[in-house]
Amino acid sequence: QLHLVESGGGLVQPGGSLRLSCADSKATSLSFYTVKWYRQSPGEQRELVAGSGSGGSTDYAHFARDRFTISRDTAKKTVYLQMDNLTPADTATYYCHAVLGCFTYWGQGTQVTVSP
Question: Could you report the per-residue pLDDT of 25-59, keeping only the tens digit for each?
């Protein structure tokens, strides 16, 4: 069983960057999991941001393409979301999600606020 922990959120100015991290609190490897980042703003539905398959494939929401990069560090057992050129529209709570077969896990989220 995973206990996903996200980190790296915070307050950043428009045009700035943040790198979010997702790892299991007990240092379980995420190598075999499909890991995705989602985000949710108040009053809005949770939406997919980016995903990373266990085989190395990646996919992005249209708004994330060209600005965000999802990557894995196998040694550190961590999945990252590098976010560049942030805008106020990117303000949300960002969640990590891991799936392996019928097992699915969510983290508690990390807040990203983009404001002057």
Answer: 998 999 999 999 999 999 999 999 999 999 989 99
b (16+ CB within 10 A) / e for 39-78: beeeeeeeeebbbbeeeeeeebeeebeeebbbebeeeebb
Say which residue the tokens 């097992």 belong to: 103
Predicted confidence (pLDDT) per residue in 52-82, tens digit: 999 989 999 999 999 999 999 988 899 999 9
* Full DSSP string of 59-107: EE-TTTTTTEEEEEETTTTEEEEEE-S--GGG-EEEEEEEEETTEEEE-
How are beta strands 110-114 and 58-60 bridged, if at all? unpaired
